[in-house]
Amino acid sequence: MTSFEEAETEETVTCLHMTFYHPCQEEKMMFRCLNFGKREQIRADEVAKFGRDSNVCRYNLMDTRVSRVQFALQFYRKLNSSEYFFEIKNLSKRTKLTVNQTELGYLNKIDLPWKCIICFGDYQILAEVQEGESVDYFETHLHLAEAPILQEKSLPSLQPIPEKGVSSSIFLSQYKSPTEIDENE
């Protein structure tokens, strides 16, 4: 046998890509402590915390308007499933966290969708999960956006979906100029 045949099977690693945006980044440099462009390994049993307190948080945001611990991400596997997920929990008592359009108050948590926008204050973070197989660790890959994410990306989950039984002409008419109608018609 060759060394190639005897080598361990390479497993893929789940990677959480996060793209950060804040309108004042140029002046205030609140992302200066984040390591953009490099993948970082995190043990599967660790909780990745984001916030201002460098003693507690793995990812520091240098802004006095950010809570000492703003939010946390935890990697986990659901019972009787081979799939891996991330859970996001709001740890700020002062600021609500929005994941897509779901608002999380203090200590509220939800599963992180495979692609979503996380917002708090003026911060916008596009989170995209790249699936993998590793059970020992996951990776984060941070990016910096130059333009607002909410204008840059169009996520299907953020588009209004008409309810069943509602005529599509109602939705089409909202894009036409207003017309005057006699109330007797």
Specify the biggest β-sheet. 7 strands, mixed
How many DSSP H or I helices?
A: 4
Shape: globular
- Number of beta strands: 12
Strand order, biggest sheet?
2-12-1-11-10-7-8
Instruction: Please name the CATH architecture.
Output: Sandwich
What is the helix content? Answer: under 10%
Q: Which structural class is indicated by helix and strand composition?
A: mainly beta
Notes on the structure:
The structure is a single chain. This protein is mostly beta strands. The chain has one domain: Tumour Suppressor Smad4 (Sandwich). The protein contains four helices and twelve strands. The chain has helices at 3-6, 25-28, 149-152, 168-173, and strands at 15-21, 39-43, 47-51, 59-60, 71-77, 84-90, 97-99, 102-104, 109-111, 115-120, 123-130, 137-144. The strands form two sheets. A seven-stranded mixed beta sheet has the order 2-12-1-11-10-7-8, with no helix packed on it. The protein has a five-stranded mixed beta sheet with strand order 4-3-5-6-9, with no helix packed on it. Strand 5 and strand 6 form a beta hairpin. The longest helix is centred in the last third of the chain and has 6 residues, at 168-173. It is globular, with a radius of gyration of 21 Å. The model is unreliable at 152-161 and 165-179 (pLDDT under 50). It is found in: Cytoplasm. It comes from Scytalopus superciliaris. Belongs to the TIFA family.
